[in-house]
Specification:
The protein is of the alpha+beta class and about 140 residues long. About 30% of the residues lie in helices and about 25% in strands.
Length: about 140
């Protein structure tokens, strides 16, 4: 379980990821930090593409990095984002990212933290943001 101090640290790390975002088309930069159940972190940023469809969200970047290194047990993801990298509101994960989370996470336990800054954030379970999600248990 992430305590308040750890959440603040992780939000700060997610904020740092905004500088790596490649968003020349939307100018909307997103940073994410994925936390494994063992406490290891994987960072991500959004990476846009002129063809739009190949664009990858920050959340999926972090998940794909983690999964490609053998991780399968996740506790939480922290997400920040804003126009030109300036965070003024909460940035929730898109539907595709929620579906990727559903593939690898327990929807009742996995936490999604969306933040404006280290002291202003909201926390949800994946189930709250993706009710009746379709996952491996449905097959």
């Amino acid at each position: 379980m992430l305590n308040e101090n750890r959440k603040r640290e992780l939000i700060a790390i997610a904020m740092e990821q905004l500088k790596y975002a490649y968003a020349p088309y939307s100018n909307f930069k997103v940073g994410a930090v994925l936390v494994t159940k063992e406490g290891k972190i994987y960072k991500g940023c959004n990476i846009e593409n002129a063809a739009y469809t190949p664009t990858n969200c920050a959340e999926r970047t972090a998940f794909f990095k983690a999964v490609s290194e053998g991780e399968r047990e996740f506790e939480a993801i922290i997400i920040v984002g804003g126009q030109n990298g300036v965070v003024t509101d909460y940035t929730a994960p898109c539907g595709v990212c929620r579906q990727v989370m559903m593939e690898f996470c327990n929807p009742d336990e996995f936490k999604i933290i969306i933040a404006k800054n280290e002291n202003d954030y909201k926390e949800y379970s994946l189930k709250q943001l993706l009710p009746m999600g379709f996952g491996p248990d449905n097959l």
